[in-house]
Write the structure tokens for this entry.
Amino acid sequence: MFETGLGVVRSLGRAGIRVIGLDRRQDVGFRSRYVQASLCPDPLHEVDAFVDHLVRIAAAESHKPVLFVTSDDFLLAVARNRERLQERLLLNLPETETLESIADKYRQHQLARSAGIPAPATLVLETQAVPRGSGTKFPSQFS
């Protein structure tokens, strides 16, 4: 229910479509007049509870609701529980492996490049552990 979710809510709501919005914390989308918003379990730390919550909401509907995932935080929980969720929800998602690549920004970059999609250069920084007591000091902005 952040900005992307709010955009979906407004588009659907203005078209007269009833929208139920979920998030693990109240965000800007909770204030829209077009949404029936409520809190849900955190999909990053309470995956099973989150999936159960979606299934309960969908089971109360007379038709299968369409699920729009508008945040990476929710994407993998939905993708990894696709089989259970599609019993009750309409999902329009690519394969889980593709979603795993999209959620990992470095893999997303590799996927874009392999598909011939121009993407800015991406650098991966590697660090070495500094042994404790080595006397190495870091500038204050890194402490």
